[in-house]
Amino acid sequence: MRIVIGADHRGYELKGELAAHLEALGHEVEDVGTTTPEPVDYPDFAEAVGIALREGRAERGVLVCGSGVGAVVAANKLPGVRAGLCHDAYSARQGVEHDDINVLVLGADVIGRELALALVAGYLDARFDGEARHRRRLEKVAALEVRYGGGKDTA
Question: Where are the domains of the chain?
Fold first, then answer.
């Protein structure tokens, strides 16, 4: 699978570990930064991950910051990006199955390496189930993007 991964300075170390692990599993990983632990702004990397998805360079994204909160807020500003902040296995899997999330957001200060690896595995293994109720809800989300954000309908 083609995966784009990004992080701010708080997620820099965990991002590197996740990228190396994903590559070892045979995934194609595009790392959009940051490339150092020096302070940077999380919206820049949320945007870079979202753009890679919107341009079709990746099928899924992973975004890491300190708590995950700022990154998930920023990522969800891009039309077509459905980012979910997950710190447990159920949410990482269910977020894809029911909500078709395409960006998994993790808080490096909240979870450890082993849990992060497990969450990424569950997220990547999950598939949108396509049930009518879930499609209907995603159509409403896409309509909100159009109504309030000027985005195109991406459902």
Answer: 2-128
CATH architecture for residues 2-128: 3-Layer(aba) Sandwich (3.40)
For 84-122, the DSSP string reads EE-SSHHHHHHHHHHH---EEEEETTTS-HHHHHHHHHH
Task: Give me the catalytic one of 9, 65, 87, 134.
Answer: 65
Is residue 21 flagged as an active site residue? no
Q: How far apart are CA 110 and CA 79, in angstroms?
A: 27
Known catalytic residue: 98?
Answer: yes
**Mean of pLDDT over the chain:** 95
- pLDDT, one tens digit per residue, over 105-118 is 999 999 999 999 99
CA dist 141 and 47 (Å) reads 19
32 has a pLDDT exceeding 70: yes
Q: Pick the catalytic residue: 9, 21, 27, 98?
A: 98
pLDDT tens digits for range 62-94: 999 999 999 999 999 999 999 999 999 999 999
Q: pTM score > 0.70 for this model?
A: yes
Strand partners, 6: 63
- SS3 call for 154: coil
